[in-house]
Backbone:
């Protein structure tokens, strides 16, 4: 029982750079804050926490996995797909049935130009309505269009607009709408 208070003390001491409301945050609080920041689209905050957490000593295996996941998710948004793919592949080995990890891994593979590896992962999750992010439906729609699967691409592009998109912008919204219009237009023979 003595080890647990020691660990908390180490974390408080090792992570004084984390501050919230004028007080130092524990590593656990910083990890949770980074996860909330990612879920809320505040990628910059998550990246800042992840950088500081990388320098923190005494993290448990669970905390290290959570930090790896934060780094992998940040990489998806910032275009560091190689780093994300490696982290997500490792994390998926630990929990192969975690659909969120599968979804993010598929996005990393797609970002690396490995659409043939990403497509079956996306397709399986979409068939079970297990994709949570519009970004994933958008990536799937584009891959399906490349494969000549226009009907599926159209349906998934529409779903992309109904799900949260991490880096939502007016430009992306217009791009998805143009994609839908193009696939919806009657074909002239």
Residues:
């Amino acid at each position: 029982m003595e080890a647990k208070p020691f660990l908390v003390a180490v974390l408080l001491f090792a992570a004084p750079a984390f501050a919230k409301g004028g007080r130092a945050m524990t590593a656990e609080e910083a990890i949770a804050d980074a996860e909330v920041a990612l879920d809320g689209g505040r990628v910059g905050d998550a990246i800042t926490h992840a950088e500081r957490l990388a320098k923190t000593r005494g993290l448990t295996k669970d905390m290290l996995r959570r930090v790896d996941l934060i780094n992998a998710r940040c990489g998806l948004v910032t275009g560091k797909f190689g780093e994300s793919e490696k982290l997500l592949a490792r994390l998926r080995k630990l929990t192969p049935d975690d659909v969120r990890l599968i979804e993010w891994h598929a996005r990393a593979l797609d970002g690396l130009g490995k659409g043939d590896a990403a497509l079956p992962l996306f397709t399986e999750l979409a068939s079970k309505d297990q994709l949570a992010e519009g970004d994933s439906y958008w990536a799937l729609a584009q891959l399906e269009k490349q494969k000549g699967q226009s009907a599926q691409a159209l349906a998934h592009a529409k779903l992309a607009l109904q799900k949260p998109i991490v880096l939502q912008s007016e430009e992306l919204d217009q791009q998805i709408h143009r994609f839908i219009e193009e696939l919806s237009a009657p074909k002239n023979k």
Observations:
- Residues 61-78 form the longest helix (18 residues).
- Residues 14-78 form one domain.
- Confidence is low (pLDDT under 50) at residues 1-17.
